[in-house]
Amino acid sequence: MREKRGPWYLLTGLLIGFTLGLIYAWAIQPVEYIDTAPSSLRADFKDQYRAVIAAAYLANSDLVRARARLVLLGDEDTFRAVAEQAQRQLAEGDKVEEARALGILAIDMGQGVPGAALTRTPQATSGIPSQASPQPALLSTDAPPTGSTAQPTTNNTPTASPFPTSMPVSPTITQTGFSLVRQEEVCTSPLQAPLIIVDVKDAAGTPLAGVLIIVTWDSGEERFYTGLKPEKGMGYADFTLTAGLVYTLRLGESGTPVYGLSAVECQDAQGNRYWGAWILEFVQL
Asked: What's the pTM value of the predicted model, to 2 decimals?
């Protein structure tokens, strides 16, 4: 008489086979990736890849090749990815040389000219940046002004510019010998947050990228550089202010301080209040 078996022996066999397969695949002979595409790398490996590309660019000044290599990483914005990594490494402080190489690469990518770190070309600069929406960011008339992107926080820490701007200085730019030729509050175009807009040029009127700008306030300090918003000019940089705080700005470690910079409040003909900006223009002596 034939013995009738239940389904359990089949399930037991499947479980044993599945377990043995996992042990073999994970421990005995795991998968090894060979010649994988850079876009499939982990985030930390992508950072290493960018650092190597930046070091190679620092040695050969081949911007076309550097761009082609960066494209392989599949970043949506290669310029932004390089700039953000340079900012992170500069803040960490343990990879200063890598941060410097990445910063020079980012600045030259912004200009789009090989060897631009050594030879700057004149480019038009703009004053107030244009806004995505034509509607002004209006302020309440019965309360202190607050911007949509510059709300004061409990620790009174100001918000930095939306685009990361902390980058190493190009070695060809001298941080001393600048003269402030214009300091003006402007309300020409409504802004979503109060700004300090800095424009730096050499004696011939050529915009200078890679110039260190230091902004300080009672509870902190922020460092950033010109040239990382090339669509607004290679000598351009901006910083977002927090309402209620007073700031001091200087170019380089030994530059002459500009005191008393605070959020600019504007009002149109209808009484609507909105944010304005400080315009600071410097010329190299």
From this structure: 0.54
